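Sequence in, structure out.
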Amino acid sequence: MRPIHVGLLGIGTVGSGTWDVLQRNAREIRRRAGRAIRITQVADKDQKKARRLVDGKAQVLGNAFAVVRAPDIGIVVELIGGTGIAKDLVLEAIAQGKHVVTANKALLAKHGNRIFAAAQKKGVMVAFEASVGGGIPIIKALREGLAANRIEWIAGIINGTSNFILSEMRDKGLAFATALADAQARGYAETDPTFDIEGVDAAHKLTILSALAFGIPMQFSKAYTEGISRLTQQDIGYAEELGYRIKLLGITRRAQRGIELRVHPTLVPARRLIANVEGVMNAILVKGDAVGATMYYGAGAGSQPTASAVVADLVDVTRLITADPGHRVPHLAFQPDQLSATPILPIGEVQTSYYLRMRVLDKPGVLARITRILADLRISIDAMVQKEPPAGEKRVDIVMLTHLALEKNVDAAMRRIEQLPTVLGRITRIRIEALL
């Protein structure tokens, strides 16, 4: 059978890995796909570098639209990134009747609804396994492997940079700024690390997972996002003493009145497997009503792991390229006309447990006033630690763990407690998840 011709847009870190995997495993891939898969055209701004990489085995162009519009290209692989030119190229590829493979989580989180609608209308596939979790096959698991289940929740470490920083802070006692500088020196963090450390990258990925789990449209703008830049060594230490570890988690859950969609630092019991995922590794827990909790672990980024997912998508698309569009797995796991309008809950309506740390004057009656405010707002205390102040020191830290409480009630309680003259400064609040 005639080989399928692929146009590769971008031959940077992931693009070069994709080229390498396709060349190295060509025979195995052909056995799996039923025909050869060949990258015949490559578009990259750095044409000199691209030519050196492909070594005469593919045509190199500076104009990506020329590749997208080439009549003999059957699949376009978009590895440029971003939401500007990448969006235009993907939409043009679909308009030209090409199938698309992309690793672009930001593009899908922000413009996925439009892209999938265009692909559905044109009868082409958009495959995106590499957009979440690098080489971890989490997209396929949600779209196919767990199709019998009513998904209850997903919780994941889906940004390796932030997980590396938190691991370094815990293992080596480093301050956040020092751990971040180490991540940048090792190439794990960008020069501008905002998307990683403030949870934006994780929110892009979580938006995709939530849509697949619950059959809802992409709704990135409604995701609650909080990063790790304000975490201190003090809170990491207190969490350890209480039997927890702090991880930046993306959490999406089916609740009574809507869908939770949130990224934030989270206290996780140290005995949970996900609490022991260290360094740049990713891990995703999925709870289904039939299967229970399942965990997916592996490298969440990098040239070869991400290329593994890109090439797997190429194999899938090649297998199904002659199939009737109505018989393919829907882009968002559910049939397009069966997507739900279930709302995304604002963070104030989320119910979880909380870690609260406050510094207070060491005086009689302080604790009584604090607990009275919590009781007034229906917040009950699960555990409490009051640190002994050093000799001569009149300030002391109080750490409280609450039972389940409504976020807006906790916000109200924090505002009232912070107004007490015996409470010094702002309260530190970190959410807790048991992940049962």
